[in-house]
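= Paired protein data =
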Amino acid sequence: MSFRIEEKLYLRPENLIDFKKYIYNNSAEKLYKARKIQSLYFDNINLDMYNDSVEGLVPRKKIRVRNYPDDNDNNFYLEIKNSSVEGRFKTRKIIDKINLKKLKNHGILDSQYGACFPTFKVSYEREYIKFKDVRLSIDKNIIYESYNKNNYFSEKRIIVEIKTSIKKSADFLAEFFPFQRIRFSKYCFAVDALKN
């Protein structure tokens, strides 16, 4: 288990070109080709994962199944993102379509949150960039959808995620990323946008 720092920046679409110029002028390089990501989130009947995230409580987690529909990777990944006092870490396990169907129909029994079922879907386009020894992802064209209802919301904002080792200096991050940080969770925004 390796803990990491995750910070998020919010960009207006009109500022994306300037942001990319800034990081590429400072020796950033593209890691992989951009691709589409789809995530199906699970939560219990009270939406306790959502509530814990909004309140910033620890320990907390998010459970999702992720896939890459336009990529050569045809796998589905069961991911659990854990936030604790020590930091954040993620576990990931490949599942097949049969197990995915079981999870959708019967849910996931979690030791902290109990019975969890599909709630919301999120899809977006992601670019992967390496900046010094920090990994950046740029997410745009984000769409939030209810799992069982025919409603969705299109996100206009662009979200930049900064991921690095927990040992990375806060001064380094402040120096090279002099942008406003936000607390942002795609899952929480999906709930806020669509739960009513």
